[in-house]
Amino acid sequence: MERAVKSPLRKLNEGTQDLGKVIDLDGYKLPRKLKSLFKKIGQAADESGVNVYLVGGLPRDILLDQPNLDVDIVVEGDGVAFAKQFSRREGGQTKPHKQFQTAIVVLPKGLKIDVATARTERYKQPGALPVVKVSGIRNDLYRRDFTINSIAIQLNQRNYGKVVDYFGANQDLKAGIIRVLHQLSFVDDPMRTIRAVRFEQRYGFTIEKKTERLLRETIRAGLLNRVSSERIGKEITLILKEKNPLPAVKRLSELGILDAIHPEFRVDQHTEVLFSGLERILSSANLPRYFSRRVLYLLALLYPLSPQARKQVTQRLALSKKVRNCVTELEPLEDKIRFLENPDLKPSQVYFSLRGLSTEVLLFMATRARVPTRWVFLYLEKLKAAGTEISGEELKEMGIPSGPIFKNILDKVLAARLDGEVGSKQEELKLAEKIWRGENR
Ligand code: ATP
């Protein structure tokens, strides 16, 4: 028997229960492979005698007519056993997590399903991991962050497409409201403060008044400090992966969330100028193939901070080594920018000034009004891959003893090549010899 969920938040969440509504999943704009997967899951659930529901972001996005391919299902019963049975039936593979009573099913065509056992969660301390107990769908929906994410769609054949909405999700989806399910939601998991902003800004919704008050109280009480760096970093990264993250990071700043991460961390006019510079560069036709937009946005967020604060924020967000390296490259950037302001530089000067910088930092530089964008693109498109025809081998054959002198000579030959002063291997060899003789004099 499912334990009734007490609703201390009744005042907060006055949504009407919507338990009878059945939607025609076939009528929604969903890939055909998903529709047929839902039906197969429903059949398998009936055979196993368990109730199975679509949960998480997908039901929300189905009702909002937004694309989403993340299939999360909840089983009232043994989720892991159902995952194994379904996977066997469809010739897929299962990765069970017995401890969490969850499993991932990967089907032959690459479709992935996250399967969980319906459960309830109880938080002993703010930000701590919850104590989990097997339960029914109602409690499973109650443990979710916001009403709009507390909706389920049943997949069993007799109830196919039945919308399970105990907490007013439908109403809030229609009204465009982000609302927690109970007063202690942010205290239980302060990371939800960042998630609230992500959903609000993604859908152009509004964080409901009482929810915003609770959010601000949670931040003021310093509870975000109790969340692990990895989790905070992951949520901030997800915000930066959104299409246009500026309004969301502005909102994080306005709600005091960035300040709670580090007192220097905020979005001000300077940050906004950097973001609009980024949008300009990101709309260029000749962007390099491989780079990370979210790292670029992160650089724009961190650039106005002092080098020490940048380092502390990257630590607090447990950012990857690649990102940490990019952030380190920001340090000498002002000097480089000053150097590149000169419109009469030779290609070799541009090359040696930019050599070794990551693509993201290079693109970030190009957003700065003082830097001629063409230098950065010239480097990315041509200079970066340039090299000499001769190598250490030829220098050895010339009798030059190996050591740091090799790099010195090869760099000078490369500079001559980039500036069009030598054009063939023969000319490079001649130049190398001349440099060696000059060095030896
Ligand atoms: P997106 O569309 O960005 O992937 P999502 O809603 O699918 O968003 P996920 O982070 O994949 O978000 O989480 C899936 C579901 O799990 C959410 O819809 C929500 O119901 C629940 N959930 C995730 N994180 C939390 C959390 N911190 N607290 C409560 N519920 C959560």
Sequence-ordered SSE layout with sheet pairings:
Elements: H1 32-48, E1 51-55, H2 57-64, E2 71-76, H3 79-90, E3 93-97, E4 102-106, E5 112-117, E6 119-122, E7 131-134, H4 137-142, E8 152-154, E9 163-164, H5 169-175, E10 177-178, H6 185-188, H7 192-203, E11 206-207, H8 209-220, H9 229-241, H10 246-254, H11 257-261, H12 269-282, H13 293-302, H14 307-316, H15 321-329, H16 333-340, H17 347-354, H18 359-366, H19 373-381, H20 392-397, H21 404-418, H22 425-440
Parallel strand pairs: 2-5, 10-11
Antiparallel strand pairs: 1-2, 1-8, 3-4, 4-5, 6-7, 8-9
Bound molecules: adenosine-5'-triphosphate (ATP).
CATH homologous superfamily of the largest domain - what is it?
Answer: Beta Polymerase, domain 2
Q: Reading side by side through the largest sheet, how are the strands ordered?
A: 3-4-5-2-1-8-9
Mean pLDDT: 91
Distance between the termini: 93 Å
Shape from CA axes?
Answer: elongated
Number of domains: 4
Percentage of residues in helical conformation: 40-55%
Which architecture of the largest domain would the CATH scheme give at its second level?
2-Layer Sandwich
The total of helices stands at 22
Largest sheet: 7 strands, mixed
Low-confidence stretches: 1-16
Structural class label: alpha+beta
CATH fold topology of the largest domain? Beta Polymerase, domain 2
Small-molecule binders here are: adenosine-5'-triphosphate
Based on CA atoms alone, the radius of gyration comes out at 28 Å
Number of strands: 11
Strand content: 5-15%
CATH class label of the largest domain = Alpha Beta
